[in-house]
From TrEMBL:
Keywords: Oxidoreductase. NCBIfam families: PRK06123.1. It comes from the Bacteria. This is NAD(P)-dependent dehydrogenase (Short-subunit alcohol dehydrogenase family). PANTHER family: OXIDOREDUCTASE, SHORT-CHAIN DEHYDROGENASE/REDUCTASE FAMILY (AFU_ORTHOLOGUE AFUA_5G02870), SHORT-CHAIN DEHYDROGENASE_REDUCTASE FAMILY PROTEIN. It comes from Pseudoduganella flava.
Length: 249
């Protein structure tokens, strides 16, 4: 059987990088999408290659339709097939109250978290769907516990974007269920990545970690485990589901 190909968006660092590494360990050829962190993405490719895996780094802003189309064309050109997509790229803006949130900020968050994931899912369906001659596949959207938990004074716009992403997961799963494609999501809770440095207040992770029932923030690899289960054939009867990976939060 020929080797499967997975595309992970925003995979230069954090949760995306953990997913890329685990996918390579599971034998996938890994396409690592990045927007700006070229050094990190290429470093990851080298790490995977050094361990005997196959990977490439592909630059694209997932919020830009032309760049998304070029990204998927690059996957086609390099590996000739796509079996799994993980919509991991996501952004958070600095923590602030609702009165201070502008339309520009809302639109920027939705452009990456919702439109970007939608466009990548569309391109994946065009390639995976048996309706278009594809052989099926799996899509996993990286949502957030914020989508259903709510968090006063913390990223109401971000939470709304992730709730929209969950609706995409549920609706698209039903639309393509008869075409060999499963669509699922994960809702990470507090995960120990650099995202908090760019979006949250200093010390946010330390402040919130004790309130997590499991008593700590999660590791990116713990999210990757859930994502790769959803991608795998072990999840063959699971579609339209969003799994919490939040330490019980
Ligand atoms: P991170 O900031 O470390 O990584 C996100 C990556 O996405 C970065 O490499 C960034 O460059 C990339 N990216 C952002 N916008 C992009 C775009 N338009 N096109 C391409 N790449 C883009 O964050 P992380 O913590 O690893 O988060 C990964 C995902 O997990 C995000 O969707 C985030 O919302 C979600 N999440 C994270 C947490 C957490 O606590 N860290 C919790 C819940 C959900």
């Amino acid at each position: 059987m020929s080797q499967k190909t997975i595309l992970v968006t925003g995979a230069g660092r954090g949760i995306g990088a953990a997913i890329a590494l685990l996918a390579a360990q599971r034998g996938y050829r890994v396409c690592i999408n990045y927007r700006a962190d070229a050094d990190a993405a290429h470093g990851l490719v080298e790490r995977i290659a050094a361990a005997g895996g196959t990977a490439c780094a592909l630059q694209a802003d997932v919020a830009d339709e032309a760049q998304v189309e070029a990204l998927f064309a690059a996957v086609d050109a390099r590996y000739g097939r796509l079996d799994a997509l993980v919509n991991n790229a996501g952004i958070l803006a600095r923590q602030t109250r609702v009165e201070d949130i502008s339309a520009a900020r809302i639109n920027a968050i939705f452009a990456t978290n919702v439109t970007g994931s939608f466009l990548c899912a569309r391109e994946a369906v065009r390639r995976m769907s048996t309706r278009h001659g594809g052989s099926g596949g799996a899509i996993v959207n990286v949502s957030s516990r914020a989508a259903v938990l709510g968090s006063p004074n913390e990223y109401v716009d971000y939470a709304a974007s992730k709730a929209a992403l969950d609706a995409l997961t549920i609706g698209l799963a039903k639309e393509v269920a008869g075409e060999g494609i499963r669509v699922n999501g994960v809702r990470p809770g507090l995960i120990l990545t650099d995202m908090h440095a760019s979006g949250g207040e200093p010390g946010r992770v330390a402040r919130l970690a004790p309130s997590v029932p499991l008593g700590r923030g999660g590791e990116p690899a713990e999210v990757a485990n859930a994502v790769m289960w959803l991608v795998s054939d072990e999840a063959s009867y699971t579609t339209g589901t969003v799994i919490d990976v939040s330490g019980g939060r």
